[in-house]
Predict the 3D structure of the following.
Amino acid sequence: MAIRAYVFDAYGTLFDVHAAVRRHAAAIGPESQRLSDIWRTKQLEYTWVRSLMGRYRDFWSLTEEALDHAIAAAAPGAAPLRAQLLDAYRELDAYPEVRGVLTRLKDGASLAILSNGSPDMLDAAVASAGIGDLLDAVISVDDIGVFKTAPAVYDLVGERLGVGPEEVSFQSSNRWDIAGAVAYGFRAAWINRSGQPDEYPDLAPALVLPSLEGLAG
């Protein structure tokens, strides 16, 4: 069946999650990349733990908590930069191909974001990247109070865009998110930007690409 909607994860797929720390790397010092890696790892871990407990907190709150842990674990001297790092996270850099790919895909299909991000975070990131004019919907899990990979999250796509799972191409840089999307019934493209080894062999993506470029070639 023809693809009627291209749906994108936000963080790591459209927006570079390491850009915030990179902007302040000189001030943080040699542990900047480790800090960034821990921040991202804990941010995701907290979503899974909260979903399993049934104790939802919005993604921005978890992002703050993850940063506090990352600073304590990797670079305590960076504590005075906390507010600046959080401000930078609200305006992450989009990957360079994003606008061009979305522009090409826009012809004949709906475009949307489906993200763990809270609405205000997503609004700021979309505005900073200058892609709001290309999107038909920006969908946050905040609407239902549970994070990916809960099937109810992927339900939001059909509810907002009026399409069936088989009509959706879902793109994420997170292999666990791709597994969730495949289990749900989406056609999924894993944007494997850093060349990670595969996981979840029983839930394979339709495509594996190094960037979004292959979607609109």
In short: The chain has a mean pLDDT of 97. The CA atoms of residues 58 and 118 lie 6 Å apart. The beta strands are 5-8, 110-115, 137-140, 168-172, 187-191, 207-209. The chain has nine helices and six strands.
